Prior knowledge:
globular, transmembrane, transmembrane helix
Amino acid sequence: MSAATDNTSKSLFVPALGGLYATLNNAAETMLRAVAGIFLTIHGSQKITDPFGAAEMVEGLGFYPGAFWSLLLSCTEFFGGIFIAIGLLTRPAAFAGMVVLLVTVWFHWVTVGQGFSGAEKSLLWAAILLFFVIRGGNRHSVDARIGKAF
């Protein structure tokens, strides 16, 4: 047990769990990244089959030309989700996904007027992706395997 783990264990109500928490730390982070990426990919799979299908919607939000932004939205969600899930170019993919989600926060909170209750899920997902913008893919990622990361 390392000194850092030992110090953390001493501050726990059940110090014996410190080793377990330390052991599962990377696995839990990897699982969160994989789940976030897979869910984003599933969400984007509905758009990638018709990548220009959201053109009118994105123009309604003020993004012109709609065909360009619709294609970018589709690719960001689908391919960005795959990249996040496997940990390839994790930070840029997570950043792009986070930007998309912050636009949906604006859409639900301001444009549609749903406030926090309408934007809550997008805020949560944006926060998860911000975590990976900051942390990267961790040691269980393609980025780590190739030895390069943003």
